[in-house]
Design goal:
It comes from Sphingomonas edaphi. Pfam families: Amidohydro_3. Keywords: Hydrolase, Signal. This protein is of the alpha/beta class and 462 residues long. It has two domains: 139 residues, Urease, subunit C, domain 1 (Roll), CATH 2.30.40.10; 274 residues, TIM Barrel (Alpha-Beta Barrel), CATH 3.20.20.140. The chain contains 14 helices and 16 strands. Strands 1, 2, 3, 4, 5, 14, 15 and 16 form an eight-stranded mixed sheet that branches. The chain has an eight-stranded mixed sheet with strand order 6-7-8-9-10-11-12-13. The longest helix is centred in the middle third of the chain and has 19 residues. The radius of gyration is 24 Å and the shape is globular. The relative contact order is 0.16.
């Protein structure tokens, strides 16, 4: 057996990513990320980019590189439940570094964020260094309530960041949607319903042409968005004159009305939440997840009954707007107690850069459980809300977010409890590949920490 005992400093010193290999991390406090309690003295084995085994009593393969994590925590990587990671750099004005919002595009629902994601963005490297290995990335709504199609990405140090493109369609309702739809929530909801009807009508078109072969008739049953025949694609001219979407935008919504693509809707106010849930009366195939949901606790029973996921903003504890008058930091705990499926996200909360704050928010929810009258969650539940739960919310629970057998090998060794701010990652693997933890911030730190006074600019010498 090849045994390699690495200290914390040695773990931090690793630079170039390695190819996937067999790694056994032993003697750690292992948290699976599935809502179960951490296990002292556990082992995690990664082979060919996947988790082979994790927990107590796990055998170490004879050919494994063995890393002794005694006194450390070993967990799945953090999954940013809602973000704009990789779409924007630092704030430098209108310099082309911000691809979050399409303010003047003629398209809306058809927009796909995947081509705009920059795997080499400084924000991705910083997030990786704090244990974030995957992120749900959404566009910002521009002129329309439809922002476009979001993606799920990894934060690995390579150019292949997108795990799943067009993972969901993102829609802005509530105050933001009202503003984009003409000034009222009524306008936003009628615009939304009209768009879904256009997509439903478009997706239901059939072309019964006399004399067609059986193969051609079968082609009529192929989903609109999957057809390759130019003659069929051109037949959307048969749509009625009463249309508001471009043909690309309407086609992009066909998978949504058919339930093949997740619809993530931003709403905060309780009534807006109920309005969204009621949409399934008219469009029963919709797969919906709510993001934000500051007042979700007031209608938690209705949300739980619907079965939809909530990707909640965990730190909204003040009435920052009229749609957040019932804001409380107990929102997540109360929804969870009512049976709502909850993950943590960061919409409109420095979501381009500070997704690493999710673990602070999760830690706050644990602390709330110790305050009389407040509603928190257990450590295991809180950690699942930033690992396996976001993955499940976007339909990728079988791939990422936990250390269950067969999941992708996204593993972090922490210096201590990952929900404690004093803890930091000492090693990170993504898809079984060891990742560098250096970034722009660490390079600045290293440069100026030991810089001789004479090397400073003249203004700093006095």
């Amino acid at each position: 057996m090849k045994r390699l005992i690495l200290t914390a400093s040695a773990l931090l010193a690793s630079a170039a990513p390695l190819q996937p290999q067999t790694v056994a991390i032993t003697n750690g406090i292992v948290a699976l990320g599935d809502g179960s309690d951490p296990m002292p003295g556990g082992t995690v084995v990664i082979r060919n980019g996947r988790v082979v085994a994790a927990g107590s009593g796990v055998s170490v393969p004879a050919n494994a590189e063995v890393i002794d994590a005694n006194g450390k925590w070993v967990t799945p990587g953090i999954v940013a439940g809602f973000s704009r990671l990789g779409l924007s750099e630092v704030d430098l004005g209108a310099d082309g570094s911000d691809d979050t919002e399409t303010r003047n595009s003629p398209f809306s629902a058809a927009i796909d964020v995947a081509p705009a994601i920059n795997p080499k963005a400084s924000t991705i490297a910083v997030s990786r260094a704090d244990g974030v290995t995957r992120a749900v990335v959404a566009p910002v709504a521009g002129r329309s309530i439809f922002a476009g199609q979001g993606a799920v990405i990894d934060t690995a140090d390579d150019m292949d960041a997108v795990l799943r493109a067009r993972a969901f369609q993102f829609v802005e309702l509530g105050e933001g949607g009202a503003d984009r739809a003409g000034g009222s929530r009524s306008a936003a909801f009628v615009l939304f319903r009209n768009a879904l009807r256009e997509a439903r009508d478009l997706g239901g078109l059939r072309y019964p042409i006399a004399g067609r072969s059986s193969a051609a008739r079968q082609a009529d049953e192929v989903p609109y968005e999957e057809r390759q025949d130019p003659q069929l694609l051109s037949r959307d001219a048969r749509r009625t004159d009463d249309v508001m979407l471009t043909r690309f935008d309407a086609a992009a919504l066909v998978p949504v009305v058919r339930g093949r693509q997740l619809l993530i809707v931003h709403v905060e106010r309780a009534k807006d939440i109920l309005n969204v849930l009621d949409l399934r009366r008219e469009f029963p195939s919709l797969r919906i997840a709510l993001v934000g949901a500051t007042e979700g606790w007031t209608v938690a029973d209705r949300i739980a009954e619907s079965g939809v996921w909530v990707i909640a903003s965990a730190l909204n504890d003040l009435p920052a707007s009229f749609e957040m008058l019932a804001a409380t930091q107990s929102n997540v705990g109360r929804m969870r107690a009512a049976g709502v499926k909850v993950a943590i996200g960061m919409i409109d909360d420095n979501d381009t850069r500070y997704v690493r704050n999710q673990r602070q928010y999760a830690g706050n929810l644990v602390a709330l459980g110790k305050i009389p009258g407040a509603a928190g969650v257990s450590w295991a539940e809180a950690f699942a809300m930033i690992t396996s739960k976001p993955a499940e919310a976007v339909g990728l629970g079988g791939e990422i977010g936990s250390l269950a057998r067969g999941r992708r090998g996204d593993v972090v060794i922490w210096s201590g409890d990952p929900l404690e701010l004093a803890s930091a990652p000492e090693a990170v693997w993504i898809d079984g590949v060891r990742q560098p933890l250096d970034n722009h911030q660490t390079k600045l730190r290293d440069r100026y920490r030991t810089l001789e006074r004479g090397a400073l600019p003249e203004a700093y010498r006095h």
